[in-house]
Amino acid sequence: MNSSIKNAILNSFAVPETHPTAGELYRKIRAKNRNITLEGVEAALKIMEKEGAVYSVISSDKSRHFGKAKGMHAHFICRTCGKVRDIFIKEGALDMIQDHGQIILGRSGKIFQTNISFEGTCADCK
Q1: Closest by Cα among 97, 86, 85, 3 to 44
Q2: What is the maximum span of the chain, computed from C-alpha positions, in angstroms?
Q3: 83-113 pLDDT, tens per residue?
Q4: Are 19 and 65 in contact (CB under 8 A)?
């Protein structure tokens, strides 16, 4: 995989991060690099997700949004526009939920990751 595509993807995340779709990332990168393809961006995102450099979240409209990997956090998903925002929760809270889930699950499985999403309407859509 071309490292320049990976770098372009990582540099394309807005601050504050908005969790773009593959298509949104492609359009942003293509504005600077006409040689890039949507298929190339999608392939790079797939590899980067396996490597842990990015993660994906499915929004209420069923589209996949991507974010840079970071510490444990939750997401707010707008049911109207589909935007995804990070919500940083008090340190230890998500660990506590994951630990509780593991206790309930017991020996029948092992939890590796916790994904928590809140859905509602963002300020732009009110």
Answers
A1: 3
A2: 51
A3: 888 888 887 888 899 999 999 999 999 998 8
A4: yes
- Helix, strand or coil, per DSSP, at residue 78: strand
Token duo for residue 91 = 């340190």
CATH architecture label of 3-125: Orthogonal Bundle (1.10)
| Nearest C-alpha neighbor of 36 from the set 73, 77, 7, 76 | 7
| CB 66, CB 21: distance < 8 Å | yes
% of residues, the chain, pLDDT over 70: 95
Domain ranges of the chain: 3-125
Dihedral Cα 97, 103, 107, 111, nearest 10 deg: 10
For residue 16, whether the previous peptide bond is cis, meaning omega lies within 30 degrees of 0, is yes
**How many angstroms separate the CA atoms of 15 and 34, rounded?**
24
